[in-house]
Amino acid sequence: MPAPGSALAVTATSQLAGDPAVAPFSAMDGNRNTAWVADVTDLNPVLRLRWKGMRTIDRIRIIPAKAPAAARPTTVVLRTLAGTVDAQLRNGEARFPKLVTDHLDIEFPTTSKVPLDPTGRRSEHSATLGVAEIEIPGLGGLARRASPDRAMVLPCGSGPAIEIDGRRYDTSVVGNYGDLQAYRLVEIRPCDELLDGVLLRPGEHRIRTIPSDRFVIHDLVLVPDNLATAEVTRREVTTVDWGATRRTVRVAGGPE
Question: What is the C-alpha separation between 188 and 52, in angstroms, rounded?
């Protein structure tokens, strides 16, 4: 799927902790203040670019991420339809014989070592790979952003999935491109299977959300289908656990 508002599809083997703020398309969005950051468990990160039609490329420039702390690539391996190129980055740039292709996989075999905490007081670990921007003259215009006011409707499967009692339901995303670029909340809509709701019988149910490569659920509300006519009853609710990613409450018994 193309990056939001562009004709260029950008994916990667990982992103740091699944955080949409450091998603792969951030490396091709024309904004050096955003960045793609690979996950700490990804020992061989790869950034993948796809586009329609053949393009000729003969150089690449990689702008390292300034924030969050991230390692800088020093060499790259470029895999294309026309062949593979190993290149040393000099001042972030590499030139190579012309390649005609409709895709590009960028590997980063070596990086500079950057500490997560320069003082060494809180962490002695090194930062993972981070790329603020990749500039490829041969792909000029493909990653151009859409107008912030332009409506955005992304298809089913592009939003976070909702899992209810082990069954997965896909979602779509609705908003505008300005919302996405500014990291504002957007609307997540259920796809076909959830349009008419879901029957939850009395008893225990487990509901969890699964982030997509760009989106994560911020709020999830369960609404009865007879909300307009049902008499409001209250039950005692006890908070058992309230963590950042997992929350458990106990609802006392009462009339349905």
Answer: 28
